[in-house]
Amino acid sequence: GVIFAQGGRFGGWAIFVEDGYAGYLYNDLGERKVLKSSQPLPPGSSTIVVDFRYDGEGKGAGGDVNLIVNEETPVSAHISRTIPSQFSIDEGADVACDRGSPVVGRQLGPHRNSLFTGEVKKVTLEINPQR
């Protein structure tokens, strides 16, 4: 299920768990980039970090994204472009679900936008304009 989602089917991002693996998805007008952890989540609590480093100045540039689970070696990818403005005027951000139009969509299966069945203890967003 979805741990955190912002945006919707035309643009957004989400952190999710699928079949015991942590994942990150970036959706740019339906073009999706998916990262999944290399190992399943262990029983108990886990920390999932998504670190995005913007390529350059100006709107719509790409960047490198790292999915880090429990401080292990990250799974990395490059996103070639980003949404140059806001994701949507009527989509919000959700914790433990994705209530608006689905960011993840059916790419990960029909049930992937459902409630997260685990416990989300904390979600922290840090914006660093220098990165």
Give your account of this protein's structure.
The radius of gyration is 14 Å and the shape is globular. It has strands at about 1-10, 10-20, 20-30, 30-35, 50-55, 60-70, 75-80, 95. The protein is mainly β. The chain has one domain (about 1-110). A hairpin with a 2-residue loop joins β3 (about 20-30) and β4. It contains no helices and eight strands.
Key descriptive features of the protein:
three-stranded antiparallel sheet; mainly beta; 8 strands; 131 residues; five-stranded antiparallel sheet; Arylsulfatase
How do you describe this structure in short?
It contains no helices and 8 strands. The protein is mostly beta strands and 131 residues long.
Number of helices: 0
Q: Record the strand order, biggest sheet.
A: 4-3-2-1-8
Largest pleated sheet: 5 strands, antiparallel
Oligomer: single chain
- Strand percentage, roughly? 35-45%
Q: Write down the secondary-structure element order.
A: EEEEEEEE
> Unreliable segments (pLDDT under 50, ≥5 consecutive)?
none
**Rg (CA only):** 14 Å
Quickly count the domains.
1
Which helices and strands appear, and what pairs or packs with what?
Layout: E1 2-8, E2 11-18, E3 21-28, E4 31-36, E5 48-54, E6 61-69, E7 75-81, E8 93-95
Antiparallel strand pairs: 1-2, 1-8, 2-3, 3-4, 5-6, 6-7
